[in-house]
Amino acid sequence: MQERITSQQWQPGDLLPSEQALSEEFGCTRATVNRAMRELSDAGLVERRRKAGTRVVQPSSHPATITIAIIRQEIENKGQTYKYLLLERLEALPPEDVRVQLGLEQNEKALFLKSLHYGDGIPQQLDVRWINLSALPQAADESFADIGPNEWLLQRVPHPNIEHVFRAEKATAEEQRLLQLQECEPVFVIERRTWILGQGITYVRLVHPGSRFQMATRSSAEPIFN
Amino acid sequence: MQERITSQQWQPGDLLPSEQALSEEFGCTRATVNRAMRELSDAGLVERRRKAGTRVVQPSSHPATITIAIIRQEIENKGQTYKYLLLERLEALPPEDVRVQLGLEQNEKALFLKSLHYGDGIPQQLDVRWINLSALPQAADESFADIGPNEWLLQRVPHPNIEHVFRAEKATAEEQRLLQLQECEPVFVIERRTWILGQGITYVRLVHPGSRFQMATRSSAEPIFN
DNA sequence: TAGTGGTCTAGACCACGGT
DNA sequence: CCGTGGTCTAGACCACTAG
């Protein structure tokens, strides 16, 4: 069925035969056709609606899946030696936008952390972060001197909900200094918000030197074949 | 089952009961358990191996799904008026790396296109592209004066395989001029390679002003709930 | 209201890969 | 070896919704 779509035998907008009809054509049961169609639907090749049937999607976007590894892994995978350095740790009132994103009360303090991650002695990531202490009171007792907040959180809140924003920005003066950047060198910024059951966990800004970082992707449509 | 994982009742590394056991516990058939487990597996919460069983993943990365809309949609969604301008169109020998990625012969020419996309008269995207003419001979007859190459391709090759790379870069002099950038303003670059059945289709570099562009994401783990 | 997809049961065979 | 997940059959009921 995927072949028929990519070969344009079934074109965008076309209505596919019903599961019933396809199960007869391919000589299998409807459950098998349903399973295949659901995979095509997950991959974004078709859209399904009860009674209306299944149609080939008119593609107007490229869906893609990325994997953001924790920085230590990424550095060690490159064969570099990893070093972690805590720069700042304090409990304070977060700025308004962070306060709202974490779902904190008006005068509720949160944990602020600033840390640097090196590969072969060269700064690779600046981690600037707020952690919700009502959600994670244990964080108040952790020094974060020896473990990065990202790893620490992943161990304690294994599968949170996540939202990311990616941006290319001009480095601030502080970022330029901490990341040892040259004049005019851009930074690749990942902003991440995690929460679980509606409760904000952390808000973090991951700043990477533009010249030492990139992110890659693989189509979600591909793995279906073969 | 997802609740048991997020609540740490089943912790990272833990072996889950077999499908057989779970089907008895939940009072359903193994097929139903299998379907649920497959969704958890797709979402990256568990890993499954025959004979070895199913384990909660030790999370060491954040998977995420992004959608890269075609630029015209993105601009129109913001309520801006879209304008397209073709800057350059010629058939030429591509540089070596592009030649290899498209799978072209040594002295095979390809179609080179350079175009700009405006929102409310302000440049939002520079599209610099090579198209494989053996894969798409029809492209030689298209002027691309009135339609962007991205849209044109999506209409003709609806569901190709895709690879992306994202980067923050310093704008070249030409990019700075074409995108009307200020001194030192970074660009967000998306490099895209598409192919179908092993045949390269296009290689494109989408250059966005860092100050007017961002990319967002939503966790793939979330939609399971509710 | 009729036809579509969504989902489930009950049962079966098999490939893989730890032990 | 043999327990695990992967996949399929055959049949059923139901929710949704376009016509």
TrEMBL record, chains A, B:
Q: Does the keyword Transmembrane helix apply?
A: no
Ordered alphabetically, the record's keywords are:
DNA-binding, Transcription, Transcription regulation
InterPro entries to which the protein is assigned, alphabetical: Bact_HTH_transcr_reg, Chorismate_lyase_/UTRA_dom_sf, Tscrpt_reg_HTH_GntR, UTRA, WH-like_DNA-bd_sf, WH_DNA-bd_sf
Q: Identify one Pfam family in the record.
A: GntR
Residue ranges of every copy of the HTH gntR-type domain listed in the record: 1-59
What highest taxon heads this organism's lineage?
Answer: Bacteria
Query: Does the UniProt entry include the keyword Ion transport?
Result: no
What protein name does the entry list?
GntR family transcriptional regulator
Q: Can you name the source organism?
A: Pseudovibrio japonicus
